[in-house]
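Subject: for your reference before the review

Hello V.,

The reviewers asked for a structural picture of the protein, and I figured it would be easier to keep everything in one thread rather than splitting it across files. Below is the amino acid sequence we used in the manuscript, unchanged from the supplementary table.
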Amino acid sequence: MKRINTLTEHVCAWMNRNRFHFLVWGIFIVLESLMISLATGIYGDFLSYLLHYAINIGLFYVNAQVVLPKALKKPIRRLWLTPLLIALEVLLYLAISYVIDLLLASFASGTSINNVPINRHFLYGSIWRALEFLGFSWGYYYLSNYFKQLKTTAMLENQALERIIVENEMTIELARTKNAYLRAQVNPHLLFNTLNFIFNQVRKNNTIVAGAVLLLSEIMRFAIEQDQESGLKPLKEEIKQTRNLINLWQIRQREPNYIDFEVAGDIENFSFLPLVLLTLTENVFKHGDLTKHDHPTNISITLEDGLFRMVTDNLIAAKQPNEGFHSGLDNIRQRLAYTFSEAASIKYEITDRNHFLVVIDLRLSE
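And here is what came back from the structure prediction:
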């Protein structure tokens, strides 16, 4: 039952898609039959009309949707293939028409084959009828192709217009980006001048504050320069700024902080993604508790046996800021995947000691 319902739905959908064809053929058949009847005074029966118009319409669609696309596909063979296929269509049409006449004569009066001759009247009439519907079919074929080309042209024009709009939007966005970049050039310049002013004002009276300002200025200059460039950068410079960041953090705190920063291996000429180490260190300060001597924070970098590893391990602070752990880590994950593909990985977890552990591994190609 379900299969029957599905078949019925497909048939209904097909008829709905082709309702214009049904309408045109219906009007054509009624008008032509009426004109022939009025002109000749001959009224055919329904079955005769049904069978003959079925073969005529079948010839129309076979020629338009099968024969012509195949015959006209390649210009080299269309000169000989098109007449050959049309001749075969006409011959097949004659054969089917004769079989239909036999069936109609047999059903009507039991007439035998010998009483349904293939004479001049039958041949000329059937050939003319076949050529008539073949002509309709050729017109339909070229007209439908014309409308398809119009539709394709309109679609291509719309796509070209959309590309122009996108290009214009990209041009506008590029101009905005350039303006933002120019503003970014002004803002750091003003910032560093201000920090330099503060440093000069306090260095004689408070060397600790002056040292903090100097460290902050150096860290920010490094971060801004790295943010404006792409690609891998020497890791040793970021290690230096990470030590500055740790020193700056310790200057700010009123109580001791227990943090170990270890570097092992030959990293003198090693390059890595910039600002990853600083981001992890900043996350340690933001989310970690560095005041417990029995829970020291560890930041380590190792390079040995073709494996580069970066680790941060810190006690999780009881009070957390509104920002979550993972926003910066997700950014690092995307950058690693984009730059190193499957050679790099980042893993993080909360350990049994309530520590937040982050491990970045990069397997170096030999």
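For the response letter, the relevant points are probably these. The chain has a mean pLDDT of 82. Strands lie at 233-234, 259-265, 271-272, 297-304, 307-315, 344-350, 355-363.

Happy to draft the paragraph if you're swamped.

O.
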